[in-house]
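Reviewer 2 asked us to include a model.

Predict the structure of this chain.
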Amino acid sequence: MDNKFVVNIGRQLGSGGREIGEKLAVRLGIDFYDKELIRLASEESGLCREFFEKADEKASQGIIGGLFGMRFPFISDGAMPVTNCLSNDALFKVQSDVIRKLAEQKSCLFVGRCADYILRDIPRCVNIFISCSDEERIRRLCRMHAISEHVAEEMMNKADKRRSEYYNYYSYKTWGAASTYHLCIDSSVLGIDGTVDFVEEFVRKKLGGL
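Predicted model (structure tokens):
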């Protein structure tokens, strides 16, 4: 019997989603993947790591892609500057293949990068979204990066916009919407460790036999 499982975590910037994911992975005894996916995708494809870092969790911005919703537009005269559209989609494909390959090999926890959509056909999976109050997010970002509240709020809003556009574009679902996930939780209510406790219990009950 195949007992492998996957936990996918979507998160708002400053919600503590990465820390929650790391601690949860340790509790569950499974491997944790976030930025590590960039290195693995680079190695898998032979492409420069900087390509993946630049495209990380960013939707395609090509003009044709934006106008017509085309993922791999056909270019006849080379007049339309759609390089970003092509490259971001190609890089997403490479990273998706890496995520699928890892999930086939072992139990994993993935943070972001549309992993819940990429692995939608895996029966033993739990999809979670971590949100947080704006006040707590700003405090955490100020503490982590030694920046002002104004800069933290700007960073937070830009990241949320970028992540939602990326997720909505590739998954055809809505980033952060309750109907998209098995569990949505506000980490400012229970704190980081309390959220880890709650999510761990939820994951174990949903999957059973862990």
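Residues 83-105 form the longest helix (23 residues). Confidence is low (pLDDT under 50) at residues 62-86. We have added this to the supplementary material.
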